[in-house]
Amino acid sequence: MAVGKGIREAVRERASGLCEYCHASEEWQFVRFTIDHVIPQSKGGGDDLENLALSCRNCNERRGNRCEAADPQTGSEIAIFNPREDRWNDHFCWDESGELILPRSDKGRATIALLDLNDEFHHATCQKVRKRDVEDGYHPPACDAIVGHGGAPAVDGSRERAGE
Fold first, then answer.
1. In a domain, 30, yes or no
2. Which residues is 18 bridged to in the sheet?
3. C-alpha–C-alpha distance, residues 32 and 28, integer Å
């Protein structure tokens, strides 16, 4: 069953226009982001709003129908980041340059590896785009933790320091 226009718009609004995996902004991309089934349809996931996430094409295609991946540090197979259940800042943060996503948990490591969030195995195109976006002043998203520059927004809107 196709996801209706109203639900697609609700997914985009809830995600604030960000890929819910790599936090790229759809606003600055040439290709519109896709609607991802967090629990893939092939594994029984439905088209309801609580099972959908906004995803850039890279993240959606690299994820496929996988919900688990090997943690590259331990080799253990674990659940990857689930944007409906997990908080991004609990599992990821940006390096000081704002160009690389760093893991903050085993789930973060496994997700970075599976989705190649830093594009290390695909010509580092994402890093080049992020560098330009940082230089242009609209990346990383203000809601994201940055190593050495602060963490998630505090109650007053300022950043808290992220773990090194």
1. yes
2. 25
3. 10
- Greater confidence, 158 or 98? 98
Q: Which long-range contacts (CB under 8 A, 24 or more apart) does 60-63 make?
A: 60/34, 60/36, 62/114, 62/115, 62/116, 63/21, 63/36, 63/114, 63/115
CA 128/CA 123 separation, integer angstroms: 9
Calculate the CA 61 to chain-centre distance. 13
Q: Which two tokens stand for residue 69?
A: 């991946």
Per-residue pLDDT at 42: 94
Task: Determine, yes or no, domain membership for 150.
Answer: no
Whether 80 is covered by a domain: the verdict is yes
Q: Give the domain range for residue 62.
A: 5-136
Considering the domain boundaries, does residue 90 fall inside one? Answer: yes
Tokens of 38: 């967090």
Mean pLDDT of the chain: 87
11 and 53 in contact (C-beta within 8 Å)?
yes
- Is there a cis peptide before residue 140, judged by omega within 30 degrees of 0? yes
H or E segment to which residue 102 belongs: strand 101-103
Which of 17-31, 126-140, 143-157 has the lowest average pLDDT?
143-157
* Count of C-beta atoms within a 10 Å radius of residue 89: 16
Total structural domains in the chain? 1
